[in-house]
Design goal:
By secondary structure, this protein is of the alpha/beta class. Helix content is 37%, strand content 20%. A seven-stranded parallel beta sheet has the order 2-1-3-4-5-9-12, with helices on both faces. The chain has a three-stranded mixed beta sheet with strand order 6-7-11. Bound molecules: NADP nicotinamide-adenine-dinucleotide phosphate.
Length: 249
């Protein structure tokens, strides 16, 4: 199958491309580097010619509330329209577990807006909602740093390895559209504070981690149920400790 991966050079996209090619598919990366811009529409029609499936793993360059909403709405609209014009039969998109439960977060509101566009379009689709990537924990720590102190919520997360996310996205891309949502997560729920402490310890990073129950994450407070998946989630096989043992700095 010809499968176009929009955001195909990103963290997840590059792994999806590799995975699909290993399975014998014609997986093509489309993003700014390859002359495809989902915001202006530049290069989209040519990139989507003869494609059966489009995988959207783009991300907004700005995480500011209005900018990220504008990104996912404009990008989503342009992409879905170009897919209809090209006769693409399946739209696969990557969203976030719990996005619809946390309206105080501008980023998560934007992901919900992206999902609504997909659900309202005529395109057959599969939405994959993932928990936080292990690879993203260092960026979370940096964004929560003030001086030498990192302040994070105490709630549980159930993060997942990017390679397991890519495997689930690739599986969805070569399967029939479900016109619904699949949840994916890592094998275990772990406290936010513990996760960040473990990454810092593994990296020999001297910053101090402080857990505060009401600390905000992307603008919202969290409970143990906010960002963890439901009982039907597909769980990635890679344990956090196993990942950290080979991915420390
Ligand atoms: N981080 C997490 O823990 C997490 C959890 C669940 C879901 N997600 C979702 O996973 C998705 C992928 O995340 P990621 O970390 O793999 O992203 P990433 O590494 O930042 O990659 C984003 C990709 O989007 C491309 N892109 C940006 N603007 C574009 C535009 N206007 N036109 C075409 N391509 C554009 C980038 O291309 P260039 O490099 O050419 O700019 C890059 O290839 C996101 O939608 C995110 O919401 C993330």
């Amino acid at each position: 199958m010809k499968i176009v991966v929009i955001g195909g050079t990103g963290l997840i996209g590059s792994k999806v491309i590799k995975n699909l090619r290993e399975r014998g598919h014609d997986a093509v990366a489309a993003d700014l580097n390859t002359g495809v811009n989902t915001i202006t529409g530049e290069g989209l029609d040519a990139a989507l010619a003869d494609a059966q499936v489009v995988v959207d793993v783009t991300n907004s360059p700005s995480l500011e509330d209005a900018a990220v909403l504008e990104f996912f709405q404009t990008s989503g609209r342009n992409l879905l329209k170009a897919e209809v014009n090209a006769g693409v039969g399946h739209h696969v998109a990557l969203s976030i577990v719990g996005a619809d439960r946390l309206p105080d977060s501008g980023y998560l509101r934007a992901k919900v807006a992206q999902e609504r566009l997909i659900e309202a379009a005529a395109q057959p689709y599969t939405i994959i909602r993932s928990t936080q990537f292990f690879e993203y924990l260092r960026a979370i720590a940096d964004s929560a740093t003030d001086g030498d102190t990192i302040t994070v919520p105490t709630a549980n997360l159930q993060p997942i390895a990017a390679q397991d996310v890519a495997a689930a996205v690739s599986d969805a891309a070569v399967s029939d559209p479900i016109n619904g949502v699949i949840e994916i997560a890592g094998p275990a729920a772990i406290g936010f504070t513990e996760l960040i402490r473990d990454v810092l310890n593994a990296d020999h990073d001297p910053r101090t981690v402080v857990g505060v129950p009401h600390a905000r994450y992307f603008g919202t407070e969290l409970t143990d149920a906010s960002l963890t998946p439901g009982p039907d989630a597909r769980l990635g096989p890679t344990a956090f400790a196993e990942w950290l043992a080979v991915n420390h700095r």
